[in-house]
Amino acid sequence: MILRFKYGSVNNEYQYEDKKLKIIDEHLDENKIRSLFALGYKSCHSEKGRKPLDPVISYKAHLLYFLKRDTVSFNELPEKINKDTDYRVFCRCQGLSFTPGYLSLFRKYHLTSEMAAQLHQDIFDSLNDSLETTKRSVDESEAKTEPKDCLRIGIWDSVPMPSYSSPYKDTKHCNCQKPCKCPKYFSDKDASIGWQSEKPNRKDKFLGYRKHTVLTYDPDKSKRLPIVTTAQTATTADIEVIEELLKLCKGKLDILLVDRAIYDFEQINKWYLLYDILVIVRPKSNAVLPDYSLSNTGTPCCPQMDEPLDWSYLDSEDNVHIYNCVKRDCIYEHECQRQFEIPMSQHPALLGAFPAHTRCGRLLLSLRKLIEPEFGIQTLWSRLKSLPFRRLYNFKLLSQLIDTVHLLKKLSKGFQHSVFREGHT
Domain ends where: 46, 80, 111? Predict the structure, then answer.
């Protein structure tokens, strides 16, 4: 069935000057985009009413704003697209014109954060399929030796998103003559004042939201992809946000690495039972374990000799860690059982499926530092500050669009790297 939209002319033989834009264009399924947005247009299925403009134009225009930094605001975007041939071909608007008001109405009535998340997931799934086929075609013999099942590791972090409202133009809705602690109100009713740290020795306040993202870990930087995202007010506790992210990650991850803000032992167990995702957090330096002292590395020690025990394995049926004593010529050798069972429930963060003191545990916790620069790149502080956006639902949409663009950039870089390697081999 052909949907009744106003379509721009398409030149399939056009050669892009921007090669990255060409790669991104090839991986966007326009039929899926149209069919998804068609539910919000009443006149695209029948002969009644005016033909609406093709939703591909507006959706790609929003992606283009974050892909290219030569556009300051959405008001300038239509003019920029009209002047650049690559942009017009990418947005499929050859022979058509649109205004900033059209983009605003499209966001208001059609492009929601849930819709953007669905399109992001479609791109992510198609990318995974293409990566798997590429691996098989590069070397079939290596593909046979690779394990079929591997751990899917995700890393969570957040970055600040400033609102268009300024914290210095706040107003108090009270009649107090002297300085008071009455609540302040801003033009953005959902925003709140939070802290952002650009340098270790300096912290600044900002008014707005925080963007929370889960990236999948891969040794190859071009394959560390954003899988789910959300935005919340700056003062929302991280432990409240992680619940929403775990629901979105269910079935997509096995392990999620978080920072020390998520340090609730009972919740870690509940999350594992509910979502089948193991949340791993670095234990605090003052962590204690009942009946067992801890060494400098956080390893449980023998109650008699205070010697570090050797971790053997985790009994998954009873959630009990098995430790062995490796010390020889111990004075308690004949009295000691030489094997110790420590329930994981005594300290889930310290004794998770991979205890932090083991080699595997240290490796997992070290992955977080490797991927933290990925979050800093997404901040786009100066660009968000110039956008006249307010309210939480708009920032959820913006955070999703930013992650989709981040995914597409990774896609274009990964493709170019693979072409470069093939050329040299």
Answer: 111
